[in-house]
Amino acid sequence: MSEILCQWLNQELKVSQTVSPKSFAKAFSSGYLIGEVLHKFALQDDFADFSESRISSAKLNNFSRLEPTLHLLGVQFDQNVAHNIITEKPGAATKLLYQLYIALQRKKKGVQTGVEMPTVQPLMSTKVQNMKSEAFRDQRLSRRRQNEIMAKIQAAIIQIPKPASDRTLKILDTQKLMKKKREAEDVANEIKKFEALIKKDLQAKESASKTSLDTAGQTTTDLLNTYSDDDYIKKIQKRLEEDAFAREQREKRRRRLLMDQLIAHEAQEEAYREEQLINRLMRQSQQERRIAVQLMHVRHEKEVLWQNRIFREKQYEERRLKDFQDALDREAALARQAKIDFEEQALRDKEIHEQIAMERAQARYKKHYSICAEILDQILDLSTKVADYRLLTNNLIPYKLMHDWKELFFHGKPIYEQASLRHLPTKLSAEHLVELEKRNLLDNNDYEEYKNMVGEWALPEEMVENVPPSNNCILGHVIHRLIESSLPPQVEPTEPELPSFAIKGCLLGKTFSGKTTALKALEKSFPIQVLSIDTLVQEAIQAFHDNESVSGAQGLQKAPEEKALPVRQKSGKETQACTSSPEDVQDVSLAEALPKREDKTRLDTDARKTAKAEEVVVSDSFSELTVRAQLGAKSERLLKKGKSISDILLVSIMVNAINQIPIHKGWILDGFPMTLNQAELLEEALTGYNRSLIELQGKKSQTSTLAVDPTASKEVPRPPSAFDFVMLLDISDNSSLNRMNDIMAEAFSSDAPHEDINQRVAAKNKGTDEDQNLRDQIQHRIVGFLDNWPSLEQWFTEPENILIKINAEVDKQSLCQKVKEMFMTELMKKENKVKKKLEEKEAERKEEVSLTEKTSLPPPPPPPPEPEKEKDVHLPQERSKTPAAKGKQASEPPHGNREPLQEGKGKKSETSLKRKGSPRGKSLGGKIPLKKSPAESTDVSPVPVVPAPSKPGSEEWVYVNEPIPEEIPSFLVPYWKLIESSYINSIKTVLRQLREGQHTVFAYLYDIRTSFQQFLRRPDHKQDFVSQWQADFNSLPDDLWDDEETKAELHQRVNDLRDRLWDICDARKEEAEQERLDIINESWLQDSMGIAMNHFFSLMQAEMNRFQDTKRFLQDYYRAMECKIPMDDTKRLTRVPLVQLDSKDILESQFRIPLVPRRSISPESALSKPKTKSILKGKIDYTLESVELNFEANEKMVMDTWQQSSLAISHMVAAEIHQRLMEEEKENQPADTKEKPPQAAANKKVKKEPPPLPPQPKKKKEDKKGKGKSPPMAEAAPVVVPAEETEEVEVKNELKLKIKEEHLAALQFEEIATQFRLELIKVKALAFLEELVIKAVDVYRLMEKWLGERYLNEMASVEKLTGVARYHIETSTKIQNELYLDQEDFFINGDIKVFPDPPPPVRPPPVEKEENSTLTIKQLDSLRDQFLDIAPKGIIGNKAFADILLDLVTLNLGTNSFPSSWMHLTQPELQELASLLVTNSESVDWRKFLLVAALPWPIPLEEELLETLQRFKALDVEQLGTITYEQYKQAGLWFTGDEDIKIPENPLEPLPFNRQEHLIEFFFRLFADCEKDPPQLDYTQMLLYFACHPDSTEGVYRALSVAIGTHVFQPIEMPNPVAEKTSSLTDMSPIEEYPELEDNFMSEERELQEDGEEKEEELPENANTEMISMQTLLRVFRGGNEVLDANRFANHQKIENIYLENFIKVFQDLGSKNLEPVEVAVLLKHPFIQDLISSYPDYKIPRRFYLACS
Prior knowledge:
The structure is a single chain. By secondary structure, the chain is mostly helical. Helix content is about 60%, strand content about 5%. It has 58 helices and 16 strands. It has a 5-stranded parallel β-sheet, with helices on both faces. Strands 12-14-13 form a 3-stranded antiparallel β-sheet. The chain has a two-stranded parallel sheet with strand order 6-7. Helix 25 packs parallel to helix 26 (about 675-685), helix 28 (about 735-750) runs antiparallel to helix 29 (about 755-795) and helix 34 runs parallel beside helix 42.
């Protein structure tokens, strides 16, 4: 309260001392501030007597003066209050001030101010003290009386116990109340009945009055009608009855009212009597009085309490209702705000999604654009490359080049070279890598063409018939067997014997696509298990928290645990499945380490054992947990770190859950897998197959090898899919967002109401947090799905399309129904598939049973050993055909413990000592697969008893698969890889050199062509001689041109010039021929042919090396199979000699490869040799004969080299056959001591050295036997078997014979293939050399052609020059243009003249001619000058004007001031002319005269005038109203001077005169102020002159439009003055003088009338709303100007505008007191203005001039 009072005192009243709550009592203790407050309200007139002092006398004075005023205000104030304030008692001053504040506010509202207060105050100031004392005395007396009364009441009050409630009294009271209510209701009912009767009476009276009015007009006969009398009587009776009834009712009411009054009076009397009785009783005794007072007081208190309680309950109820309503309003407001926020958030989410979608679209567009740009760049590169090589190859691009470019283009490689590969740096750049990829691509293509003999290596026609088989089947079988022997055995994953009918699938889709809803409905309808990865992760973590431990049977759970934790090794070549051991779990970042361990190599076994030993104690407790709990521990550890769970961990959790499901029960995954990596890991974990590795094996199986085993399967088996079906619930992004918003809105609206508002708000806050998390994740989920789905879609559709797309943008029931239908379809497919597999297995089982029955039959007795032999032969083959080894290539690294290559080489000599067992013993290390696949079992067919003879390598041939020592595969497999790699690399290198050499050939041939052309175009000095001759010819004197001797001399000079020029041509021809010979005799062609031959010889060498290495490979293999020691072949390999390119003498021993010196044939020696073959067609050219002879020598060298290579191969084959024969002869010799059989030697484990091999026989030349005769030689060696040998020896001999036959067949096949390839290389080498020579010869012949053509052209140009010179000699004319003779071109240069032309004639200036009495520009300028001197202001007297014209006409005297037709004008005619142009009765505007005299010029329309005005104003930046000549020319008028002027052909004839252009310049001179520098033009004034019109009214409106700047419309009520003024116009200017214009005039009048009517019809609503000022109006209506008389001595007089006073009056009439601008429409309605417009003549032009112009 004190703060409110302080604020009131300090801010509103602004007392002299600042009051604060702390110093409140002290500030008011003196009473001064209280007086100041009263003084401010004009209630304390004696405030000047107040003192601010704090002494007691001052305080007593102040309070004594305040006391009466406070009492008058009704404020309680006495000595005690004053004492408390003076002593600064707390709260005393605050209470007094508060009472004072309330009183003042009340008085203020009652408008009782200081003026009215004196009426209340005492009249005499001298009686103030007496009144004060009387007031105190009266107050004391009244207080004493009150105290006495209260004491009496208190004494009379006796505490009487509360009487018991008497029910009879209450019943009587209620009966009385009911009786009163019933009486009140009866009275109310009677009153209603009475009011209804009154209404009926009123209606009856109204109807009676109406009927009386209607019947008043009836006739007397109607009144006398008897029937009407009866009605009247009946009505009277009825009225009487109603009146009687009304009287009765009124009487009843009166009686009732009297009764009520009587009852009330009786009740009042009763109360009065009761009161009197009470008073009497009260008077009886004091005790009764006290009791009455007490009862009254108690009753009063009870009533007050009851009312207070009712009031308080009412307040409580109102407060509760208000609080409840406030809570409802608050909840409604919060709900509305939440709804608004929800909608805004939904809009923001959509905007964010649209932005993300736009960014994705932009990214796709950029990617697509970059791809298109890259493709376009490659197309441009290809086009430019083709264009470049069209220049190099003369539009003949070879097929090979175009093929290579297309390959680069299709593989996306740049066609142009990015970096040089000649000197590669240590660190390769990106450009070098690209070039290496390009080179490898082209090398591979070239090698494939060479290997398959297609493209450039296609077979010629003569070799097509003798094509050998493309594959050596025996060699392929040997290689396949060796590779399989070197690989460790691999166990194929076993398949269940009985396939399960359980269906497996997954349901994918975006967030809110309905996956969970559909799966719930599916789970209710079918016996399947739905697995959700989120639920499984939560269960795993909960299992870890619950310490879920393993049951007693740990051994039984090992397999599921290992299967549940698959880890794929991504090293690129191998796959490993590792389980999660306890040591992995103890790692802090174990889940992160799982993917990292995939890239690590295996640890050493010792280190691994020590690590395990250290961690066994730690992991004991953890290992007791189940797999699910362990996985949950890993997941929780990652989640606590804020990281996501790895894919491997998620797949492990999922696989563990799948393993817990029974086999017969199907399962479906909910939204898993989500990424391609998860799909790969899940498939590998469930099926055991790695699709990427299988694809890699398939690619490796398709790689090119030199020999392929046809019996080995090349097809890689397709891995089974982990799912039977995959369903995609397809939904758009917007639908997903809308579903999220709908779900959140439904959850928001369906919240259960809480009793406590705080709980409800807390629940809502929790829900909003979850919703916010969902909102935050929805965008990332959608984007993640869009990013991962293309790869997942490809994964689920490529090997086998198991993907099913379902449109999920439907309601729940339809979606669930669709999913159920699709699931039923897939379930039926799975059942049919399983039944089909069962049927196939049953058929296979029956077939196997039948085969076993057939094989169980006893064999025929004659040849018993055959089945055993066949069995022994087939056993290794069957064992080698395991499914795990199918498709394996030699490039794959070995998996088992294999010996390296060096170790195999070191143990090559001991192979015979390490043989284990007999040929029927173990093979492949004794490891045999436990089970064969059905395909293998079907491949093995029963061997017939007597096999038909078959050729080695054919399909019927049974290969010898005898066991070989274990060291042989470890040595021969790397050896064969080395053979393959060296052969392929050699072939690729040679083909690359040939390919690059082809580019060099094209470049060289192009260079020599261009250099020879440049040589032919070398400058000559013929032009110098020609220029000197032309100068001498033109310098001949003119008088000697016609002299015959001079002409003869000139002809002789021409002959000398011709001979000299011919000599120059002959010398240049000889130099060109010598240059051509030098080019031909260069050693480039021979070097190129030598390099090419070396390349082809290198190909032959590669084939020779391959054959020799293959021969040694086969020899070692078959000798190992025969248990013989490999031969140590120390002989050097056969080398193909190369061509020595340089002529240095180098010893042959310095080279590994022999060199053959190249023999080049000179042209001299070529003439003496006879021609055997000619590749040169056409005319014989002896300069190219050496080229042909060199080609023949190279051809012979190629043929010799091929023959030597072919013969060397035949010798090697023959030597191998001879060696076989020698060994057989040696073995067949009878021995004295028999060797022990190999089986016994193997059992005793005795290692014996084999007998030493005989020395290697030298190669013997066969008697030129063909290739086909070598196999019969092998077959001709019979094996003699003695009769006394045992059966085993026979089998052994047969086996040896078969090995020999197979070995020789493989060797002969290689011989045939090598011989064929050597012959193909020979053919291609000869074709290549021939093509190279033909290209060079074509270039040489092209040079010869260019040389001859150029020589002939030069001679012809000299002849042309001679002809031109002789022509000018005969015609005796000089040669002005330069004669130009440049090499083979001769022409006369028209741009260069040896002497200048004569100057052309000067065209005279244009001259204006007089036409039709029109004044020329010159005449107009002379008149302007004269008038400007006489009347500079433009106004001249009428008489003076006529006199000046008369003087000019009569006193012309050669001045030519007027046209000739004007010279006949008389003085009356001149006066009439002046009257036509008169402005008023005494003056003429000579500018208007000159303007009319300058006709014809284009008459402007009003729109053209306004447009011209706007252009002038746009250039008038300072808004001065004037412009210069430059601005005038820039703006232009409504017409231009650009006319179609025909330039005369005669240069002496002047140009036509452009009158309009000169008129534009004349108008500026006419209206400009020439006194200023530069001259200034008032453009508005000039345009006012051009506003003139034959109709004066139209002219005035045109002038007003120009002055205002906008179009002014004529009012509708304005009469058209054209018809009225026709007579005056005709009087003024008779039309009879111009009869030809009469028709034009009448038509013009009609057009003007029609225009006026159209303007009246087209008058817009807001017409003439512009404002016009007095100055503008005076400028339009020029009533007075300076008038200069013709007499130069006349006085100057100033005449004011005659319309000024009238205009002022008009403006005042229109309400413009201070002459402010008025509206045009208002101004035009004034009568004076209308009369002035209709009669103003200054803007009228004579009609005949106007018509003549128009």
